[in-house]
Amino acid sequence: MTTLHITVGDREQVRQDALQFVQDVEDDDQDGKATLQFGTYDDFVDSLTPLRLNLIRAIAEEAPESMREAARLVERDVSDVHSDLKQLEVLGILTLEEGGPGGAIQPVVPFDRIEVHIDYPLIDDGDADSAPASA
């Protein structure tokens, strides 16, 4: 099973995960791991809307042969789906492959599962360095 791991928040953890990813790539020790990192919860929800998640699932389950067919699966306008597919491609969640029927571009989701880790602090600890100085 190929899993996309999504990490949200905790900038230090995101940095450490990125460094570990680079180290694993250099060591050729990926074991099919794929990671997508968002610095904030807002970035995450702006990028992976419920409509986009539904589109990802439909593509993974049905393997449409074109963007138009993907739009039909989710009962949405082709131009809106095209825009979402381009954004999801930029994020690395899917690929758009040429060579479908009649030269159509086929969306492909190379993952069986998405796992999300969200670090969402309820209380801002604040940095000691950013605290106001006393007089």
Would you give an account of this structure?
It is a single chain. This protein is of the alpha/beta class. The protein is 43% helix and 17% strand. It is built from five helices and five strands, in the order βαβααααβββ. It has helices at residues 11-26, 41-47, 50-62, 67-74, 78-91; strands spanning 3-8, 34-38, 95-97, 106-108, 113-118. Strands 2-1-5 form a three-stranded parallel beta sheet. Strands 3-4 form a two-stranded antiparallel sheet. Helix 3 packs across helix 4 (67-74) and helix 4 crosses helix 5 (78-91). The longest helix has 16 residues, at 11-26. The termini are far apart. The mean pLDDT is 84.
Order of helices and strands: EHEHHHHEEE
Taking Cα atoms only, what radius of gyration do you get, to the nearest Å?
A: 19 Å
Q: What does the main sheet amount to?
A: 3 strands, parallel
Question: Number of helical runs?
Answer: 5
Q: Would you tell me the structural class of the helices and strands?
A: alpha/beta
How many distinct beta strands? 5
Mean pLDDT across all residues, rounded?
84
Helix content: 40-55%
What is the global morphology? globular
**Could you list the spans in which at least 5 consecutive residues all have pLDDT below 50?**
none
Q: What is the distance, rounded to the nearest whole angstrom, between the alpha carbons of the first and last residues? A: 59 Å
Give me the side-by-side strand order of the main sheet: 2-1-5
Strand percent estimate? 15-25%
Protein name: Putative transcriptional regulator
